[in-house]
Design goal:
Layout (H helix, E strand, L loop, with lengths): L13 H20 L3 E2 L5 E3 H8 L4 H6 L1 E4 L5 E4 L4 H10 L6 E10 L11 E10 L4 H17 L6 E6 L6 H14 L6 H9 L10 H7 L11 H16 L5 E2 L11 E8 L8 E7 L3 H4 L7 E7 H7 L11 E5 L2 H16 L4 E3 L1 H6 L2 H11 L3 E5 L1 H5 L3 E5 L5 E4 L1 H14 L1
Parallel strand pairs: 1-5, 7-8, 12-13, 12-14
Antiparallel strand pairs: 2-4, 3-4, 5-6, 6-11, 7-9, 9-10, 10-11, 14-15, 15-16
Helix pairs in contact: 1-5, 5-9
The protein binds adenosine monophosphate.
Length: 418
């Protein structure tokens, strides 16, 4: 019986894992510049945390969550996103606010897999909790653009919108429902459902007929209360000050209940149908909704797989180990001593114990080639007798005999070039 990985999951091979490590390191550099601190939270939470925060009618809660009952009869869910868990952690651990937190980790959604869309995928999530100013929303967008540049993503655009607050959004929703009712007969099945449960979500519909109808739909920004109006103006003015090119997209509403006021999305033309690198917005009511004091907050999440697809180049980051080759049982001990010495000196090194024991040169050279290493160090009876080592450059085929200190000095200088 051969097993396959579950649909929508990824095996991340070493080269790809190296790219991910590089990407995370480069993201962390930028997050540091803006005073963010890392937080880690569980991969599963009580189901209610998500149904409460995302909204019972959100698509994630209805169709996409991996929910299970554990042996204690508790309903648990693999996290489909990070914000709810972070807010729970802030409340539960009494974290001092305002706070700037980020997290990396896997998320789980049972979506139909396609390019850039998986059932297990990684996100970088960023949250600023305890600050209400629209200047923060603008700063987050500015930070995201710096982050993109730092990971070689040059081609992207920024779309923004506002979705009001609990004072003005219900009025807008009523207007929208009135508008949708007029064309109800022409709407697709999914939009009928959305109309009943979460009308804002109709704007995410990909159906051509629906999209045409929504072109004339009322706009949230024409129904804002004065506070939301001002917030949106300050937000846009700050983006302009930061020199961020952006467009207002009235259809950008984000399907999760907890969003208020400013929302935004980062788009890459390199991604195909799933063109969103990430997005976010303000969520001023979530902390209270989850049992904390009234606390404004804002944040965004980027999909790591999409960042990797959009990044235009990656530096070679991998340092290949030195391949130590022993020629027989008698020299194996010297080989193991060298291995330890190299590692003590900070030089990565490996040895094939089985082939070394048997004293087979060719298979070991073949393996060194397969691994793509640059240098092999051969120890045979001659080397042992002369207390030396044969260093072989696998690229040029050249071989020289060196004493231990010469060998180490040479390998160190090569390693520094990496
Ligand atoms: P969301 O939490 O839905 O706002 O998504 C934020 C970002 O996470 C998206 O823009 C994508 O980059 C990424 N993302 C969301 N869902 C998936 C998925 N199923 N597979 C891969 N990336 C995803």
């Amino acid at each position: 019986m051969r097993y396959q990985r579950p649909k929508g999951t990824l095996d991340i091979m070493p080269e790809e894992a190296g790219r991910r490590f590089w990407l995370q390191t480069r993201c962390r550099q930028v997050l540091d510049l803006y005073g963010f601190q890392e937080i880690e939270i569980p991969t599963f939470e009580h189901t209610e945390l998500f149904s409460r925060s995302l909204g019972e009618a959100s698509e994630i809660v209805i169709k996409e969550m991996y929910t299970f009952t554990d042996r204690g009869g508790r309903s648990l869910t693999l996290r489909p996103e990070g914000t709810a868990g972070i807010i729970r952690a802030i409340i539960e651990n009494n974290i001092k606010l305002p706070g700037r937190l980020f997290h990396f980790g896997p998320m789980f959604r049972q979506e139909r897999p396609q390019k850039g869309r998986f059932r297990e995928f990684y996100q970088l999530g960023v949250e600023v909790v305890g600050l209400a100013s629209a200047l923060v929303d603008a700063e987050l967008i500015e930070m995201a653009t710096r982050l993109f540049r730092n990971i070689n993503i040059r081609d992207f655009s920024v779309a923004v919108n506002t979705i009001g607050c609990p004072d003005c959004a219900p009025e807008f929703k009523k207007e929208l429902v009135k508008f949708l009712e007029k064309s109800k007969g022409e709407l697709c099945k999914d939009c009928h459902y959305r109309l009943e449960r979460n009308p804002l979500r109709v704007f995410d519909c990909k159906n051509e007929t629906c999209r045409k109808i929504y072109k004339d739909a009322p706009k949230v920004r024409e129904h804002l209360c004065p506070e939301c109006q001002e917030h949106f103006e300050v937000f846009q003015a700050a983006l302009k000050k930061y020199n961020i090119g952006f467009s207002i997209n009235d259809r950008l509403v984000r399907g999760i209940d907890y969003y208020t006021r400013a929302v935004f999305e980062f788009i890459s033309p390199k991604l195909g149908a799933q063109d969103s690198l990430g997005g976010g917005g303000r969520y001023d009511n979530l902390v209270e909704e989850l049992g904390g004091p009234k606390t404004p907050a804002t944040g965004f999440a980027l999909g790591i797989e999409r960042l990797l697809l959009a990044a235009e180049e990656f530096p070679l980051v991998e340092e290949k180990p030195v391949f130590v080759i022993g020629l027989g049982e008698k020299v194996l001990e010297a080989g193991i001593r060298l291995l330890k010495e190299l590692r003590d000196q900070g030089i990565p090194a490996v040895l094939n114990y089985d082939a070394s024991f048997r004293g087979e040169l060719k298979p070991q050279l073949r393996q060194a080639n397969t691994l793509g290493v640059r240098f092999a160090v051969i120890i045979g009876p001659d080397e042992l007798a002369q207390n030396s080592y044969s260093l072989k450059d696998m690229e040029t085929g050249k071989q020289v005999m060196l004493k231990l200190d010469e060998l180490i000095a040479f390998l160190k200088s090569e390693s520094e070039k990496c």
